[in-house]
Amino acid sequence: MSHDVIVVGAGSAGCALAEGLSRDPTCDVLLIEAGPPGRHPFIGMPAAVARAIAAPRWNWHFETVPQAHMDGRRLYVPRGRALGGSSAINAMVWVVGHRSDYDAWGCAGWDWAAVEPVLAEVEEIMAPALPPSGPAYDAFVAAGGEAGYPVRHAVDGREDGFGPFRLNVVGGRRRSAADAYLGRAAGRPNLTIRTGAQVLGLTGGAKVDGVRLTDGTVHGGHVVLATGAIGTPQVLMLSGLGAADHLSAHGIAVHADLPGVGANLHDHLEVKVKHRMTEPLSLWDDAKFPNYLLTGARYFLTGTGAGRLQGLEAGAFLRLSPGDGPPDTQLHFINALAFDGATAEDRGHGFAIDMTQLQPESRGTLRLASADPLAKPLIDPNYLATETDRRMLREGLKMLRDLCRQPSLTAITGEELRPGPGVVTDDDLDAVVRATADSIYHPVGTARMGTDDGAVVDPETMAVRGVEGLSVADASVMPRITSGNTNAPAIVIGALAARKIAAALAS
User: Which residues span the domain enclosing 39?
Assistant: First the structure.
């Protein structure tokens, strides 16, 4: 069977792509996802986000190579593996980024003027909403005001200030890209969705005509890769599309020498402060055993209670560096001591605040470990390679400590667990950053669009340079990371790319 368009990867971008392309009833679209449909209570329940992200059935569970500037640590790189991709297991925070993010890409048809109307449609479809407030979140936002920052009705990266995040939670249930976009396309006879089929490579060499899967080969007039900043460069390289010397070293025939494939990998890194609480205002009582059984039962039987909360409903965007410009720092207030893992110190009432550097300078690579398509790739973000990045996280910890000394937070703040009262000097703080900083799970840039020799994708058509019948549309095409959580921008990329690809196919 042959299709007009094959979209590989039903993640945040892929779902928007498939829905957008299938709006044309004459275009036969096949959407392929390696993972399962993802219909499970833990995916739908906001409070079960930690369980959803931990489950191997919905997560590729990648990790980095040892990081040279982080004490040789390997960092966790979760990526969604279900309909909806990472939007099916993420923390549901809806952040658009700053208008200058898109202008800075320097790509025709991708500046803020072009993106803004598409974003308006995306937000109508995804319907992000404000969560209910609570005393701990209110104290965090009030402390931001006391520290001299603006307080907003909501924050999504478009401007600085403290406030609640909008979340992809509708009626107390996660709204993934699959829920929103594939639900919208349900019943279209020209859209076929296939799950449980992992892509092994592309067929046709420099003139792509299909996709090799774990259970066979499918052919199509055009293939669009939407397997994300980890999956897309891996598939390209396995198919002979990448840096010639790297491919040859693995015995892979070179069909297009594209040195930019797998280059420009970068991500958001975060550091945390953690405090015990002097008041029982965190989610601990609802999350501890056996109370979490009652929390779950109440949620599934009545749709009410703490099961509707994912634990980081408020945050901030601010600028720590001198000068004007967009926010360079993001905060997430976490109403618990642990979010995606627990240690002994994480028991009991407490909170954490993480600080993320929004525009890291460090760049890394994604490379093949072998020609085996089932082998996990070598992921090297090269975190903290520059002094600017190290300084930003160090100063971020200082800022978080100052925030916790504001009156509204002081009223509920107990013992500092991280960095800990003994950590005082810059050298001490740098050591804490190396030992505890973690990815916030936003890898981008590994098949960037542009018009220079190092670019992989044409921003006008989304076509891969030097290759026929192939496009890319996911977070890998970002020349530079957006200022905040990357789920919303990835959906925008899918939605806008659908229009560009459809126009290119029609011409």
Answer: 1-128+171-267+365-381+443-507
What predicted TM-score, i.e. pTM, was given to this entire model?
A: 0.97
- The total number of structural domains in the chain stands at 2
SS3 sequence of 338-396: CCCCCCHHHCCCEEEEEEEECCCCCCEEEECCCCCCCCCCEEECCCCCCHHHHHHHHHH
User: How does pLDDT run across 302-361, given as a tens digit for each residue?
Assistant: 999 999 999 999 999 999 998 888 899 999 999 999 754 556 567 899 999 999 999 999
* Residue at 434: amino acid letter: R
What residues contact residue 102 under an 8 Å CB cut-off, 6+ apart?
110, 111, 112, 114, 115, 482
**181, 147: one domain:** no
Q: Do 89 and 40 fall within a single domain?
A: yes
Residue 158, Cα to own-chain centre: how many angstroms? 18
State the average pLDDT over residues 200-209. 98
Cα-based torsion angle of the residue sequence 156, 491, 199, 109 in order, rounded to the nearest 10 degrees: -120
Catalytic residues: 442
**Token pair for 321:** 């560096």
Task: Please check whether residue 446 is in contact with residue 77, taking contact to mean a CB–CB distance below 8 angstroms.
Answer: no
Rounded Cα gap, residues 352 and 500, in angstroms: 42
The answer to whether 81 and 9 are in contact (CB under 8 A) is no
Percentage of the chain lying above the pLDDT 70 cut: 98
